Amino acid sequence: MRPIRAKRGERGSIAAFVVLFSFCLMALAGLVTEGGAVMSAREQAMTEAEQAARVGAEQASVLGLHNGRILASGSAPTAAAEFVMALYGHRGTATRIGGEVTATVSPFSIRTPLLGLIGLPSIRVSARASAEAVAR
Questions:
Q1: Would the pTM of this model clear 0.90, i.e. be above it?
Q2: Which of 20 and 136 is assigned the larger pLDDT?
Q3: Residue 17: its pLDDT value, please?
Q4: How many whole angstroms separate alpha carbon 99 and alpha carbon 71?
Q5: What's the DSSP call for residue 3?
Q6: Quick count: other Cβ atoms within 10 Å of Cβ 115?
Q7: Contacts by 34-39, CB closer than 8 A, 24 or more apart
Q8: Which among 119, 29, 9, 133 has a CA at the least distance from the CA of 76?
Q9: Strand, coil or helix: what is 117?
Q10: Burial (0-12, 13-18, 19+ Cβ within 10 Å), 67
């Protein structure tokens, strides 16, 4: 039996397929591993924003505790929310409108070495959450 030989125009086509397939597998591995890291960072940023907003709203509630209403003045709620975000290690800002405190974690970058191979070296993550003070 005679061995099968490739035609002249098809020589090396398997090598090109292997290179392309390897590149696709690396991109997929980057999406899975680094996509998970980015989702985890977003979850952490959201947790930070939620906790900071709760602490700020609690401060607003404490200010109005004795007279049964939320006080509209004072910077303690926003300062407390910004302090909590700083404790977590991320900068952020807090605003207050009446009894509602909104905390925003400033955008920060998550490095993505595998996705960097296809031109995405980092992904920016931020979060925003609000909490409302309740006087009882």
A1: no
A2: 20
A3: 84
A4: 8
A5: P
A6: 21
A7: 34/110, 34/112, 34/113, 34/114, 34/115, 34/123, 37/110, 37/112, 38/110, 38/112, 38/123, 38/125
A8: 133
A9: coil
A10: exposed
